[in-house]
Structure formats: C-alpha cells, structure tokens
Amino acid sequence: MVTIKDVAKRAGVSTSTVSRALSGNIPVSEETKKKVMKAVKELNYQPNVLAKGLKLGRSKTLGLLIPNVRDLVFPAAIRGIEDTANKYGYTVVLCNTDEDIEREKIYINSLRRRLIDGFIISTARPGHKHLLELNNEGFPMVFLIRRIKGNFDAVTADNFQGAYDATKYLLSRGLKNIALVNGSLDILLYRERFKGYKKALEEANIPLNNDIVIHNVYGWEDGYKAMATLLEQKLKVDAVFATSDPKAIGVIRAIKDYGLSVPDDISVMGFDDLDVVGLLDPPLTTVSQPFYNMGVAACEMLIRIIEAKRRPKPMIKTLPCKLNIRSSVR
Amino acid sequence: MVTIKDVAKRAGVSTSTVSRALSGNIPVSEETKKKVMKAVKELNYQPNVLAKGLKLGRSKTLGLLIPNVRDLVFPAAIRGIEDTANKYGYTVVLCNTDEDIEREKIYINSLRRRLIDGFIISTARPGHKHLLELNNEGFPMVFLIRRIKGNFDAVTADNFQGAYDATKYLLSRGLKNIALVNGSLDILLYRERFKGYKKALEEANIPLNNDIVIHNVYGWEDGYKAMATLLEQKLKVDAVFATSDPKAIGVIRAIKDYGLSVPDDISVMGFDDLDVVGLLDPPLTTVSQPFYNMGVAACEMLIRIIEAKRRPKPMIKTLPCKLNIRSSVR
DNA sequence: AACGATTGTGCAAACGATTGCATTACACAA
DNA sequence: TTGTGTAATGCAATCGTTTGCACAATCGTT
C-alpha cells in the first residue's frame, strides 16, 4: 500500500505538508500543493481510513438498526440511506435486531468499538432505555420510520395525513362501513394512523364503530385472521382499511377464501406501497410512503449532526404520503 | 473511552501484558491473567477495532456487492451473511452496484482503503476484469448466487438440478408443451437452468421446440411481454417454466389478461421462491433456492479463506434446490 | 533600520493497539 | 559458585494519519 510518506518523499516535502495540502484546512502554497497533487496522482495514493479514523476518533461509518432486512418495508429505505452515505464518503453497516433489545445493545456496543459516527434507528419502541442513554450522551442518532415521543431527531412519513386521505378516499367512493385493521397502539405510527381514520370519519359524521376496528394485528397471517373474524360475525363491512400492506394481503386472501370478491363485495385499502403490491390480484390501492426519500432524508440529517461543531436542535422531518390508486377499491 | 493503558495501570502491569493476556497467543502467568481480567471487567474495557485493524492490517470487515437490495432475491441471503459475519465478529458493508462496473470499481477501491478483509460478490457477469485482478492478487473473495466460469470460490444453488426437477414435475402432471421463459444465456445460472430443462425433456423423449423457448427475459415486465407474444402466436402451450419468480409473475398476469386461467388453462412454474410468491393468486409453485443458507455458506467460506495462513484451494459449493409445490401447476 | 505580523513548512507527539527484543528472576546442572 | 535455560514481563518501535509548536522567510509599518 502507498502511504502518505511515499507521497511526501516523491513530492519532496514532509508528511505534514501532504496532509495539509490534501485536507485544505491549513494554507499551503499553490506551488507545493501542485507538487503534492502530482505525486498523489502518480502513486495513486489512497489515504488509509483506519489510520485517519484512529487519529480523529471518527470512522466515517454509520450504523443502521432495523428489525429485519427481509421485511419488505426496509429495502427501499436502505437503498436511500446507502446512496446518500456513499455520496458523502460514508459507509453503512446493517444490523438486524429481530426486535430483540439484547441483540440491539450488543450491536451498538460492538459498533462503538469501531468508532461508529452515528446511528439510524428503525427499531424504536417505547421503553428502549438504552437508546435514550445514547441520545443523552449526545451521540448522533436519528429515528427513521418509527420514532418515539420526545425531543429526538427523526424522519417519518405523515402517518396521520396518509390515513386521513385514505379514509377520505374510501368515503368518497360511497363506502360507509369501513373496518380498520390496525397494528399495535404501542407504536406511535399506528396511533397516528388510527387518529387519521377517526378524523376522516368524524368529518363525515360517521360514528366510530368499535366492532369493526381491530388493533394489534401484525403481518399477513394476523390480517387474515382479523378479516376472518369480521366475516364470521357477519358484520356489515363494505371496505377495509388495513394500516400496512401485509395486513391488507391477509385481508384480501380471507375475503377471497370466504367466496367474496375484492373490490366488488368489499374494497381494501393498504398502507406502505411495498414494491410488490402492484402485482397482486387485484393490484392494491394503498397509501404510498416515500421510503427511499425517507432514507435519504434520515441519512442527510444524521451526517449534518455528525459534522456540525455544535449539536443542532432536534427536529422531526415528516414526509407526505400519497395515495396510489390501483384496483382494490371500487 | 477506556484504553488498554487504563487497564494496564489498574492491573499494575504493562500494556503488552494486557494485550497478551487478552489475545492468549503468548503465555502469561495465571495470576497476572486474573488481575488483567479483573481490571477489564471493572473498567468495561472494549478494544478499539480501528487501532487493532491499523496495526494488523485487517479490519474484521466484509464487503457485500449486490446489484440492488430492492431485488427480492437478496434480502434472505443478506440476512444469512449478516448473521454469520456477526457470529465471527465481523461486520458487513452493503454495496448496491446497479450492475454498473464503474460503481463497483469505486466501491471496491473505497473499501480497500478501509482495509476490508474480503468480498462476497453477487454481481458477477462475464467480462468483469477487475474481479479477476482482485482474485489474482490473492484477495479473499467468494461468488454468491451468480458466478463466472473458472477457478474461483463460489456458493450457488444447483441450478441444473432445480430446473431438471421442475421440468420433470411438469411432465409428471401430464403437461407436454412446456414453454421456457428464461434469462440471458450470458449468465451462467440461466445456462444451467436451460440445460436442466432440456435434459428432462430429452429423457421424456420430447423434442425441444424452439418456438416456445424465449431467452433474455429480465423482470416481470419482460415476462409479461414474452408470454403475450406466445399467446398472440397461438402456439400450443400447456405449461410455462419461468426461470425466475418475477418472470413467472409477469407470465401469470399476461395469461390472466388474455382471459385464461392459471392453472386450469396453463400451468406456471417459477424459480427462486421469493418471500412473497406464496401470497400471489394462485400461490406460485416454484423451485426454492436456499438463499439464507447460501448466504451463511458464502460467509463461512470467506472467513475461512481470510483466516487461513495459506489460501485454500478454490472450491464451488452447490446447494440443492427443492420444489415448493403450491397451486399454479395443475 | 528595526520590529512585529503573517505565511509556509517541518519536527515530533499523539491516536490505541501488537510484538520483537531485552531484561529479570528463578531453577537446575555442572 | 558459575553458567545455562526457561518463563514472565516490560520497553519501545510500529501501523498511517493529523496537528500543536517552533522556526524561517517574507512583508509592511513605524
């Protein structure tokens, strides 16, 4: 490997001068700068990131904590993060926590030994004390997609508005008995979506019917069960708003299995707009979250925090969702 | 941060002793070892990976080169890699190349500045000269999923056997006119799958009908077009073997759009068994690739290469595929 | 003409680990 | 007693950077 010493020798200057010429922080005469650049080119010098990191105490590395890459919500966001990190010369390390706090702690620890510069966290749940501690230390971190209440940096979708728009749209299609198949209210974003749903009903003067709202639904299997329950009870339902696409997939399968048709008998609205849902039968009408852009925004925010001299005030960036109308709503 | 010096001071020994006690490579008396361990515990000492990496010239970091995380083939493999790397104390850096050689070269370069220990490569295509160079240097690398001809370390599925079994199965269901919707023959794995298909037909004494084999199909849109062409030509087809699930998805949509039914009119067989294809309508019968285990195997192979004193002989590990029978074949 | 500012450069000390070599202490044999 | 061997430890150099400090040269001011 060619080091800064080789460059210095070739350019006939000291290593300090090379370092300064390269960083540009400290003035170096035009002439020597030219000599240095020439030597750098000729030798194809590439600074050793580890050495630099050791000296500076930072590694130009970012940690990304997610529950599981296989969850289809994440790949697009990861891509946004990765592209952005790369643009600014950072490298990103992916960590799958499986929603396991111990695993998460171990990851955080082992990355800190590598002098990681900051974290993007998509695993937030209430009661993650270790994250609060990290934040109190002033360690750079931003929440992505999921966040927790409080004064933290975060990038999320506008979950309230997305749910509100979706419900409004269902209402505008003449659908009145809109069931809600929702996730756990422990998670902030499901609370927000619930609020959006309620607000839209309220504005339409439709009372909330608790018989047809189901919470704590996770994944398509649960979605299937929730819908099956609804159908068994013979409740009047002409549309279902499932607050994530996997739930919607389960809901659709249940409706089909009960011999009914989507959207002729029951309309279904999803939330997320995962890459695959346009390929379903019928193609799913759903609220589109800008995952890629959320990844970009989170990464830029984190890098800004890392590179600032003083920690900027925490801010929550909320990106708008938009309806992606396909064919699962009549 | 607590350093090895702090530990040394607390234990009343030199840093060298601490280092030796910790690594275990060089004998240290039981008594001092105990003292050192005690100090380590009390101070919660975590060695600085960058410093160690700088000194040793290795970083305990692995690079993973894939075309795109959003391609559903990869998440499961990534997960396998990640879990394994983690188990051995390695960290993995994800790189999306978008099949762009320049991007790939830049990534490889920038990771080498970080003293990366090795690469897992899923982007192989013929004519990737820079990969050959890397290999000639003796740099640790293993191909995953895709590989190129030659004497390289690699982990792949048994593409020949998978395609052979799939075709056999279609034949066993009484399907005779089996169209093939295949990828580019530039890519080794599609050549293998083509061979498996031909072998099965041959054994059943069915001559290869080139009118119903289509190559160079990429993604679901192309799959749709390929199937549409077949249907337009009114060729006799009672089954389609699509050599990747996205192609199969396109094929199914085309069949439906032409007013026919899967599997009643035409059966469809896929290849990959992506996480979502069980949720399609009809659930896809497909050849299941053990992506997770392939990731695990590739990562273990790479780590073995990295940690060996002498580079072991290149080996190609081929994992079996198995048929996942659902409902798209009658 | 003398003096302080300013600018450009080099020396050498860090960053936190590992390791070859030297040193010490001790046991044992001659 | 002396010498040799062995085991345990410490010293100091090293990995490739950055940067505080010192110094030299140049310039403008009084």
Quaternary organisation = homodimer
Structural class of chain A: alpha/beta
Please indicate the count of domains of chain A: 3
Q: Determine Rg of chain A (CA atoms, Å).
A: 25 Å
CATH topology of the largest domain in chain A: Rossmann fold
Largest interface: A-B, 42 and 42 residues
End-to-end span of chain A in angstroms? 65 Å
Strand order across the largest sheet of chain A: 2-1-3-4-5-11
What portion of residues of chain A belong to β-strands?
A: 15-25%
The CATH homologous superfamily of the largest domain in chain A is named: Response regulator
Query: Helical content of chain A, roughly?
Result: 40-55%
Question: Sheet with the most strands of chain A?
Answer: 6 strands, parallel
Count of helices of chain A?
Answer: 12
Which segments of chain A are poorly predicted (pLDDT under 50) over 5 or more consecutive residues? none
Number of E strands of chain A: 12
Order of helices and strands of chain A: HHHHEHEHEHEEHEHEHEHEEHEE
Text of the CATH class of the largest domain in chain A: Alpha Beta
Précis, in short:
Two copies of one chain form a homodimer. Chain A folds into three domains: 4-47, lambda repressor-like DNA-binding domains (434 Repressor (Amino-terminal Domain)); 57-157 and 292-320, Rossmann fold, CATH 3.40.50.2300; 159-289, Rossmann fold. Chain A has a six-stranded parallel β-sheet, with helices on both faces. A six-stranded mixed β-sheet of chain A has the order 7-6-8-9-10-12, sandwiched between helices.
